[in-house]
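Open question from group meeting: does this chain pack into something compact, or does most of it stay loose? Before anyone orders reagents, we agreed to write out a predicted structure and look at it together. Recording both the input and the output here so the notebook holds the full record.
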Amino acid sequence: MKTKTLLLSLSLIFGLTLVAENVPLEKAQKVAVNFYFEKYNQFEGQMVYDQLSIQSVYIESDETQNFYYVFHINKGGFVMVSADDCLTPVLGYSFKHDFVTGNQPPNVQYWFGQYEDQVKYVRENNVKSEGNVAEQWNHYLSHDFLLQPEKDNKAVVPLLTTLWNQGWPYNYYCPETASGGSGGHTWVGCVATAIAQIIYYYRWPDHGQGYTSYISQVYPQTGVQSADFENTWYRYSEMVDQPLTVNLAIAEYSYHIAVGLHMNFGSGGSYPSDGDSIAYFMRTVPSDWYYRDQMTDEQWKEIMYNSLDNKHPIYYGGNPSSGAGHAFVCDGYQDDDYFHFNLGWGGSSNGYYTIDNIVGFNFDQDMVPYIYPDTTQFTYPIFCSGADTCCAFEGSICDGSGPVNNYQNNTEASWLINPQTEYDSVTNITIMVKRLDLFNDGDRLYIYDGEDNAAPLLAELSGNNLPGDIESTGNKVFIEFITDGTNTAPGFYLNYKTDRPTWCSGMTQLTEVTATINDGSGSFYYQNSSVCTWMIDPGITDPLTLHFNYFNTEEENDVLMIYDVDSQELLA
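Structure tokens returned:
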């Protein structure tokens, strides 16, 4: 024990190396709590140490060894700690997203598998711990843990607000499958999902270019897949960060990107045949592919910092030793050690991760930084102006300047959110402001509880403090954006959703001898995914007769079934 302590002291003074060893659960837990406390106070806000606790722990292991621990924190998020002290103590963390272990798609399995592979590598090759890594372990294992002196807080907050996925309902237009997949359809694919989120970040282009059609050589049973990019106008105003139900605008968009890649749609996973999709869609300035094995780690990181500092998210690819490659979006960083990755799994396990390389370990990774619309050939950004009407049940609105540029002076633009139709009823509308940065003196975003600016004012927004959810009392919301002629700022981006009445639901007991039964929707259409049951038991022995005054459902998909309770016979 004394020898081990002496070696540790020498490493701190002279930068010598240490023989790696396993990290027990108790030590890993202390690292997790101390690390979370330090980073939270550095980037999120003030927190008292005693407020922190571990809710649960997940251990990635095989029959003989642990690879890493994932601690879920009571304040939200997780900390992922290495089970070997040859690696950086904390491999990844998040302040708000959960780490989910079940049913991980292939790209997520790859991402966490690379950390497992590194642990195996250092143990099999007796790799020694570098002095700076040992210093980190000692710091986060301190019993009297103190915050480090305040740093520069070098950071880019996550650029993407989307939490999109590869499965249902994003794959609504993907080929159907009898087994596997999600929601009866094959997967969109991680490459298409990554590209889709980057393109939506810019909300560009309004339509693609060209046409493509193909039959997969790997899965020919999926049939002909085609997309007319040139004549399809993508409905960004109907897209949201995280749809509550089937969103056809996002589903069409994701499918077109996948088709542009000549995606091999499979029930276990989908992967592309070529990379034409960016050419079809983005209309971007030429972006080069960078390969990690062709440069140093410092050069690799510097490119990433530069792209992110300019608000350009990065398409980030990883290639396992066998099988198809995988894709993610790198869209932020904190300090010099952790980059934020959107894994394309509905927000699950999104977080900040180390990409540090162990000497001798090979990361087969690539990236496309600096992606941005081609402003030499096309008009971008398309600034908001005039009046518009939004009729979708959920959607998004922005000032049109995009995430990089500022809005214009002397802007007057308005949007009427009016999703109710003669068939679909809306109770109220909720506004969720996702990005806000308006010049305080003179530029305003007004939100009214009605169809015009004569309605009651729900909110008057300026500056850069995000408000909480804003709810209307009725089925219309009017939004007005007005700027003066002095200064500008990055602008705003918001999502909205609607609440609709629940017509019939659950079980209804009817004991009257005579009664009227209906789905409750009145003059409107009933809701999708409705399950309604009526038990008619008036307490008499005479036969019951049902007389229909009106009947109109979607043929084949929506069914009304009538049973005899005593015999369980299906009568109609």
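Observations to bring back to the group:
The chain has a mean pLDDT of 89.
Residues 155-380 form a domain with the Cathepsin B; Chain A fold (CATH 3.90.70.50).
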